[in-house]
Amino acid sequence: MIQLKRFSHAAFETPDVERQVDYFAQVLGLAVAGKQNGHVHLATRMGDLAVQVNKASAAACTKLSFQVDPSTPLADIRKGLDAEGIKSEARSDAAPGIPKAIVFKDPKGTEIEVFAEQTAIAGNQPVAGIGPIKLGHLAFCVDDPKRYADFYCKVLGFRVSDWIQDWFVFLRCGPDHHTINFVQGKRTIMHHVAFELKDWAQVQQAMDFLGSKNINLAWGPGRHGPGHNIYTYHRNPDDQIIELFTELDKMLDESLGYFEPRPWHRDHPQRPKVWDNRRDIWGMPPTADYIRQRE
Ligand SMILES: [Fe+2]
């Protein structure tokens, strides 16, 4: 089993590279860090690679890239995947600062890239727009969330943080409550991509900034039950849902098995569990614009 440490970045195909890069740079507030192998790479204001963009006929999230312990030999990862009957290949210079990676596909064909060593691609830099502190998580609509949760736990070492009934699963690969989610949907498609903001003050600034650009919220703000993050959602020009969040639960010690205590938790200690459908701590119900992503 691969033991992931960190979610690094995601790749997005788009029919309009200029428009998508303009959104990520001028609205979301990432910095264009360069172009390589036909991809435009964007980093956070601290210089961490977060997003790759390249041209295709339709908008889609096509790759998730994760880091393992830097001392892990990549050959061992390939051997482990071979033993599980999963075909993989070695990739050189997959992205700036990542000289070597192993790539394979999950059951829906999304590329999973795993690398050990990474060098920073930029330093602290001013950005336009919102300026998130990191890429937080990706959620996908799939036909059978349990099947995907089992694959990600068995092959990539994820742990289940929470379920909403049997149709939405939250998986973690580090302290953050969730890094990958699977939600039952009629199509196999990205549900949303989430970026972490520093605090409430930045959420407020972000909402005012989106308002100044006439970008309406698709849902929120509110505080979720699973993960207990403050959430807001809007759509980018490719009609993809972008979440901006803060105050996500963290499990700092896996052996204790509970999330760090917070005043808004209704359970103490807050352990992974199955939530019912009334899962938000506060906020309005999901809007039709949010719900349509699963249809
Ligand atoms: Fe989310």
Write the layout of secondary structure elements.
Layout: E1 4-14, H1 17-28, E2 31-36, E3 39-43, E4 49-55, E5 60-68, H2 74-83, E6 89-95, E7 98-105, E8 111-115, E9 134-142, H3 145-156, E10 159-164, E11 168-172, E12 180-184, E13 189-196, H4 200-212, E14 217-223, E15 230-235, E16 241-246, E17 273-275, H5 288-291
Parallel strand pairs: 1-4, 5-8, 9-12, 10-17, 13-16
Antiparallel strand pairs: 1-5, 2-3, 3-4, 6-7, 7-8, 9-13, 10-11, 11-12, 14-15, 15-16
Please explain how this structure is put together:
The mean pLDDT is 96. This protein starts with a strand and ends with a helix. The chain has helices spanning 17-28, 74-83, 145-156, 200-212, 288-291; strands spanning 4-14, 31-36, 39-43, 49-55, 60-68, 89-95, 98-105, 111-115, 134-142, 159-164, 168-172, 180-184, 189-196, 217-223, 230-235, 241-246, 273-275. The longest helix has 13 residues, at 200-212. Helix content is 17%, strand content 38%. The protein contains 5 helices and 17 strands. A hairpin with a 7-residue loop joins strand 11 and strand 12 (180-184). The radius of gyration is 18 Å and the shape is globular. The protein folds into 2 domains: 4-115, 2,3-Dihydroxybiphenyl 1,2-Dioxygenase, domain 1, CATH 3.10.180; 134-294, 2,3-Dihydroxybiphenyl 1,2-Dioxygenase, domain 1, CATH 3.10.180.10. It has 295 residues and is α/β, with parallel strands linked by helices. The strands form 2 sheets. A 9-stranded mixed sheet has the order 14-15-16-13-9-12-11-10-17. Strands 2-3-4-1-5-8-7-6 form an 8-stranded mixed sheet, with helices on one face. The protein binds fe (ii) ion (FE2). Fe (ii) ion is lined by residues 137, 139, 192, 194, 243.
